[in-house]
Amino acid sequence: MLEVRNLRKTFGDNVALDDVSLTVEPGRMFGFVGANGAGKTTTMRIAMGVLESDAGDVRWDGASLTKSRRADFGYMPEERGLYPKMKIAPQVAYFGELHGLTPAAAKRAAGEWLDRLGLGDRGDDFVQDLSLGNQQRVQLAVSLVHDPKMLILDEPFSGLDPLAVDTMAGVLADRSAAGVPVIFSSHQLDLVERLCDTVGIISKGKMVAAGTVTELRRSAGRRLRVNVADATPGWEQTLPGPATSCGDGEWLVDSADDQGVLAAAMAAGRVVRFGYDEPSLADIFREASA
Ligand SMILES: Nc1ncnc2c1ncn2[C@@H]1O[C@H](COP(=O)(O)OP(=O)(O)OP(=O)(O)O)[C@@H](O)[C@H]1O
Q1: pLDDT tens digit string along 25-40?
Q2: Which residue, 21, 32, 96, 179, has most beta carbons within 10 Å?
Q3: 41 Cα: distance to centroid of ligand 1 (angstroms)
Q4: Number of domains into which the chain is organized
């Protein structure tokens, strides 16, 4: 289990992280979301020991992280980190050896991961000759080649086509199912909602919400969605709570009085839609980041 506790980090006067904590449990996929500059990369860099925090600590399985324990982690940095003029298969194997695999084991694992990621026939190509999306697959192979105990990935899905997204998502889900804690940052909230057990929302250096998507939905509060065909204009003023128009006669109503909303709608005309509206992660994100 990875525990990030009370991190603080400043760059000059800029407070990049202010008391940031999060936990990634074994077999869980944690989606780390936040606007540009919110502090995701800084948090992950500190977790990987690339950057030092001013305060707070990072623990792995209950103990402080040391360099050698971090060697068991797989990391996809935001700035990536491949050698453009080196061939793909030897490069992935080289990173495996850096993490302690024997040359034979590293070569075998590199071949297996490149096959799995759809690059089995590109092993002799130079990295610089691959498309950006394929370079990203190689970067994923590099982060996985040594069978890491923890995966930390900075925007692994950015710039990938839908098929590559599916491949990447499948690999991460497999690793997570095998018990590996996985944390990744992303701006693709639909993807995070689909893949992650737990989500953390960071805004201006502070964690403003964390939990399962169900928990976040519950705390965001439910609203009623109602649509009345041919209603008299202004009927929404009879509702027992503030209403926001969604267009085409549909309204979102902030009210715990569901029967009161239904009664007002029925009095206004023919009710063609009525029910609770589950906020999407995008809705929750907008609210939490406001
Ligand atoms: N090396 C650095 N020197 C100075 N300021 C930095 C440095 N790295 C990050 N920052 C600042 O720290 C804050 C957090 O940046 P960070 O890169 O962690 O955000 P992020 O959430 O990863 O953003 P994005 O989604 O754009 O990648 C920003 O204000 C950024 O300008």
Answers
A1: 999 999 999 999 999 9
A2: 32
A3: 7
A4: 2
Compute the distance from residue 150 Cα to the ligand 1 centre, in Å. 23
Task: Summarize pLDDT for 18-28 with one digit per residue, the tens.
Answer: 999 999 999 99
Asked if 149 and 172 sit in the same domain, the reply is yes
Give the residues across from 11 on adjacent strands.
14
36 lines ligand 1 (CB under 6 A): yes
Check whether residue 122 and residue 251 sit in a common domain. no
Give residue 47 CA to ligand 1 midpoint distance, Å: 15
Nearest CA residue ID for atom 26, ligand 1: 36
- Residue 118 to residues 106, 172, 178, Cα–Cα distance (Å): 18, 15, 21
Angle (nearest 5°) at CA 237 between 277 and 233: 95
The complex scores an ipTM of 0.97
- Range(s) of the domain holding residue 226: 222-279
